[in-house]
Amino acid sequence: MIPLSLGEIAAVVGGTVEGDGAVTVTAPAVLDGRQAEPGGLFVAFAGEHVDGHDYVGQAGRSGAVAVLGSRPTSLPTVVVEDAQAALQALAAHAVARLRDGLTVVGLTGSQGKTSTKDLLAAVLSSAGPTIATIGSLNNELGVPLTMLRADAATRFLVLEMGARRVGDIAELTSLVAPDIAVVLNVGQAHLGEFGSRAAIARTKGELVQGLAPGGTAVLNADDPRVVEMRSLTDGPVLTFGRAEDADVRALGLALDRLGRPSFTLRTADASVPVVLPHVGAHQALNASAAAAAGLAAGVPLDMATAALANSSLSQWRMELRDLACGATLLNDSYNANPDSTRAALDALAAIEGGRRIAVLGEMLELGADSEAEHRAVGEYAASRADVVATVGEAARSIADGAGERALMLADNDTAVDWLRGHLAAGEVVLVKASRGARLDEVAAVLA
Known about the structure:
By secondary structure, the chain is α/β, with parallel strands linked by helices. The protein is built from 16 helices and 22 strands.
């Protein structure tokens, strides 16, 4: 974060200073007092069940020197009526101060956002200091927190942008207009809240509409709904994917015994082989998106592919672990929707081994189509796994779709007990569900 005194912060956000207004914030803003850094800013929200102001002491012990909140605290505090609006205003101001030397990349899509963001961060980091979204903190709070981590040394700022309703991404681009907008796909994530894929497409398109003047749209050539977003900008467009007309095209895809892809990325000017350390054929598309965005940011293709070969992904995304029993765990438990679950099942099927077990839980926010989508995923799982173990009553429709290959387990503890008693050496087990199912707990006990 750029250094700002409390007096300056108060002027930016329309607040008042309680305490020493000369105190200067030099480290990032946080919402969790345990994560505060020396010189940092603790943003306190008074929620329905938890009041952040009660944790100011914890933040201070961790190093925070000031608070942004709705009432005075034991630390110097900028008091505002709306902490969220103030946080966003502060982030917009801080990045505006850095804009001359900073390239901002916004990235969205129904699935693959976080993994592609991780790949893109690796590509851009090879060319200069890069700040990127941590994990998937991609909402109205996560985006400004990421923005406030940028400082004078930052050359690239990568902002993953999520949405749950029309207008969410437009709100985020109002904080900072990206120089590069990457749209991965239009799928079924949050379909229950959006109501239709058309509404999802409209919302993802807000990222393209929010581009800075002359900014570049980086679009998935394999997704017709994304390709149509060309019409939303007068600026340059780069496409990626496996389609013949893609500007950055992934060719010759092959998988090794652990399901890790190798392929060639081809542009009009170059052709470079890529070997990824990540599991799943779908990572080739994510990598082509990252390489295309890298080209838009001035990173040559050969430099980008070298960075991709040494990249890492956020926690609980296609993590491959050897278990003590000799089995292999594929932990993709962070979140799930029908499309991402099918991709994970494909990865499970591609890994060499004995019996394949898919441990699947509920996929949330699918609306009226939820039961049908769960059943369809169960049918697909039965074609990719020898055992489809569903966890919880909410996942019953997956079991219905999987038919004879289904095994219904009542809860996470039951799933752990069954797996401990039945996993054998050489077998492969996938753990996948929406975040609310907390199947990461199952994976953690196994590992």
